[in-house]
């Protein structure tokens, strides 16, 4: 009996002496998961719109500072000088070796949450137009931030296992596509170490929680917004012969634009031209002076994007000319700052395939098809000069994913008011995957 007690005491003493480095990553995650779930729920209930991530960025910066990072806040120069850059850069130098950048996004969306969860967001705010909108982390950036902070904590405790410079980067305004560029424009890569690798993760509702997905090469498209103003000559609806009807021209333009992808583009180069908005006229019997269209163009390759933009301009002007619209009323085509495509460096992916297979098991790691949605993470690669990759973090209940695959009815996707990732297993996998990836890229 006495001997047993002594053995018991020795085991307790030993347990106390075990440092974090001797605990497995899983045991460290077990130890911290409750705290991370609290962080996740707090972030979920306090979302902020793009360009206004004041409190979120301050929270992320504060947590990283507590972990011993050198933290700089308010990084980012937007084209609209009224917007503050709420970017956060946290640097930890730990001997010689590569510089690795891990990125999270900070912003949320103008969506009214309808998940019915106990921690659903009730936040309302005024948008830039002064209209009251609800705000929700409907893209899972709260999950990304929590995984990111958990990863930072794990890597701080596991410092003896890596060497190099770690940069934890909180990016504002991902949803508006201008946050990454705003940080780069604010001399991100000259004021701070330039990374040798950049990595990020994003929730994936179509993938089971506990799993991670990857897409080598082009994974997400570039997105370009285009405003078209078709100007005509207005008049009475009963006297079309006295007018140049911009509504009919707009209708022809919409149809003619469909030939860009179907007839001018190689089927081997994915591309989308969508007219998402068309507005013209005020009532039954007035032919208006103008019609306004808003388009989005998606491509992987930059030369394809440029060619499509030129085609749009040519078609719009050509249709207007055919309709006899005078030269001084020619359509106006305005191309806005867009988002570049996301290219996952195949060599870096190959390396991470090995890491994730070991960390998560082969059955929890899978290749996924590319998509035409967009993300501005690709900018951190400086036109693919810096190996960068984003990987997909499964976020949905496996039973629901199975039912959705069988029925063909999609689960609530990103940006949906019903998007509700399963917090605990998703967080565990996010931290484990990201920590394992960084440990491998910076291993001693
Ligand atoms: Zn989003
Ligand atoms: Zn997102």
Structure notes:
- The chain has helices at residues 2-17, 25-45, 54-66, 141-157, 179-185, 188-191, 246-264, 302-322, 346-360, 398-407, 423-441; strands spanning 70-75, 87-94, 99-105, 124-126, 132-134, 164-171, 197-208, 212-214, 217-220, 222-231, 235-236, 271-280, 286-287, 290-299, 332-335, 342-344, 365-367, 388-396.
- It has 444 residues and is of the alpha+beta class.
- The strands form five sheets. Strands 1-2-6-3-7-18-8-17 form an eight-stranded mixed β-sheet, with helices on both faces. A four-stranded antiparallel β-sheet has the order 12-14-10-15, covered by helices on one side.
- The longest helix has 21 residues, at 25-45.
- The radius of gyration is 26 Å and the shape is elongated.
- The model is unreliable at 10-18 (pLDDT under 50).
- It binds zinc ion (2 copies).
- Residues 139, 175, 414-415 line the site of one zinc ion.
Tag the structure with descriptive keywords.
444 residues, alpha+beta, eight-stranded mixed β-sheet, four-stranded antiparallel β-sheet, 11 helices, 36% helix, elongated, binds zinc ion
Distance between the termini: 46 Å
Bound molecules: zinc ion
Number of strands: 18
Q: Major beta sheet, specifics?
A: 8 strands, mixed
CA radius of gyration: 26 Å
Helicity, as a percent range:
25-40%
Structural class: alpha+beta
Anisotropy-based shape? elongated
Strand content: 15-25%
The helix tally amounts to 11
How are strands sequenced across the largest beta sheet? 1-2-6-3-7-18-8-17
* Average pLDDT number: 94
